[in-house]
Each structure stands twice: as structure tokens, then as C-alpha cells.
Amino acid sequence: MYLEVPPHVRLRPLVRTYWQIEEFHAPGQEEHRFMPERTVRLTFFSGDSWQSGAAHSDALDRLPGATLTGMWLAPRRLVSVGLTRALGVELYPWGARQLFGWSMAMQGLDLAPVSAPVSRAIPALLRAGAWAEAREVLDDWLLERLATHEQALGVAVQAASALYTSLGTARIGTLAEELNVSPRQLERGFAQEVGVNAKTLARLIRFEEAHNRLYVNPDEGLAGLAYDLGFADQAHLTREFRTMAHMTPRAFAAYARQMAHPHDALAPVTPVVAVPLP
């Protein structure tokens, strides 16, 4: 079961969506590979899962009940057993920075020290299957943090929003000119307001869009995809895709054709490669 739910209206400039997912992994374990994403993910979790710092790492750490992660540049592994439930928030990077002080340098944040009561309450509600109550607690907590940390959204956030709208193809020089600031001023603004530089954000937006489109339509032509997303050519798309996905677009498309993933509704937003472990 996968479902997206809009956040409270006051949170929408900072939050793209809430999502909730319930899976039962039987028999045994299931391994997921999460590709790099263009948003920062706040996740509350109930169940037995372990995560790695990199897709090919053998080391696994138990997934905390509440974490803030995202905008990494390589795949990550997640291994789950039995029934798992998760309630997540897709934050724009400036939202994660404003609410939690996030920056690209943060690999992950266990939220228990930030807010122990919420870190315990929401997973407990998920264990009980009380989704609406969990979302209500989440709304109240984020609105409380917004009231404490809210700042005016500056020109760097306007530029970052334009990158999302253009699927990462907008040029920083053009955006700076349109916003009446120098490119150097705009880059400083990205560091201060967005938490990630413009080039990296554009790369992540373009990669996730390419990945999503190939997941939905593995037969999509790579030359046309490269053109649509502003890559210099198909070879440029292939190099960038291999760097972030650890496989070529053709290899991923071939694999996507074979997948019988049980949560295809998740694909347009956050594709997941699911492979049963031996």
C-alpha cells in the first residue's frame, strides 16, 4: 500500500508531499535499492529494517524510528523483514534547511535527540495502524517548528524553485540575471538558504527525472530523453546516470522490464528496485 497525502497548507512552500507505505516482506527478507533523489526525506518507521551508507556496502545499521536523510549522490540499500510501515515527508532542501538546519554535508540525522517525544509517538501510532493520528501529530510538530524557525524565502529559493520547474535545465547565470543578482551572490544564497549548491541540485533533479521516466517507460529513447533534460548528448546522459545509479540507463531499463514490483504506484515519485535476497 502506497499513498500520498498533501501537507498542511502552511507547510506547502517547504514540503512537496507526505507519503505512507505499508509492506509485508514474506518469505524472509527483501532488499531495496533507493536511487538518489531531488528532495530531502523525513521518515518515521515501524518494523525491522537495516540500511547501508552505500549501495554496495555490506555493513548494515538498524534503521532508527525517525530519520532525516536525502540528496545523496549514490544508491543506498535497505533490507526489510516482515511487516513494515513508514510515514514520510518529502522536503524541498530549503524546507529541510529552515526546519532542521539541514545541509548537503549531513549524511543522515537521527531525530530522537531533536524531538524524542515525536520520535517515539509517531512510530508507535504506525505500529497500531493509526495513520490519520500519526499524520496529525506530524502536522502539529512541523507547524510548531515552522513557527519557531520560519524565515522569509529569498532569491536563492526562487532560483531553486525554478530549477525544479525546469527539471534542472535552467542556467544559473540566466536565473541570476532574472533575479538581479550576480552568479556569485546567488551561489552564496544557495549555500545559506538551500543547503546545496545549484549545480548539484540541478544534477539530482535531472537524474531523478531520467530515472523515473525510464522506470515508467523502459523503452523510452535515450537520445530524446537526453535532449528533453538538457544533457549535451546521449553519452553525457549515460555517464551521469552511471555515476549516480551505478548502472547505465540501458541496463536499468532492461532491469525495469523484468521487475514485478508490488508498489508500481510509487514509481513516478520514488522508484525502488526490489530484489529478494538469496
Q: If you had to describe this structure to a student in words, what would you say it looks like?
A:
The chain has ten helices and eight strands. By secondary structure, it is an alpha+beta fold. The chain has two domains: 2-151, Jelly Rolls (Sandwich); 155-247, Homeodomain-like (Arc Repressor Mutant, subunit A, Orthogonal Bundle). Helix 4 (155-165) packs across helix 6 (183-194). The chain is globular, with a radius of gyration of 19 Å.
Q: From the helix content, strand content and strand pairing, which structural class follows?
A: alpha+beta
Quaternary form: single chain
CATH architecture of the largest domain: Sandwich
CATH topology of the largest domain: Jelly Rolls
* Low-pLDDT stretches: 262-278
| Total number of distinct structural domains | 2
Helix content: 40-55%
Protein name: Helix-turn-helix domain-containing protein
Pfam families: DUF6597, HTH_18
Organism: Deinococcus arboris
InterPro entries: AraC_XylS_family_regulators (IPR050204), DUF6597 (IPR046532), Homeodomain-like_sf (IPR009057), HTH_AraC (IPR018060)
In short:
With 278 residues, this protein is α+β, with helices and mostly antiparallel strands.
Write the layout of secondary structure elements.
Blueprint: E1 2-5, E2 15-34, E3 40-51, E4 61-62, E5 66-70, E6 76-91, H1 93-100, E7 109-110, H2 116-127, H3 131-149, H4 155-165, H5 172-178, H6 183-194, H7 198-216, H8 222-228, H9 234-245, H10 249-258, E8 272-276
Antiparallel strand pairs: 1-2, 2-6, 2-8, 3-4, 3-5, 3-6, 5-7
Helix pairs in contact: 2-3, 4-6, 7-10
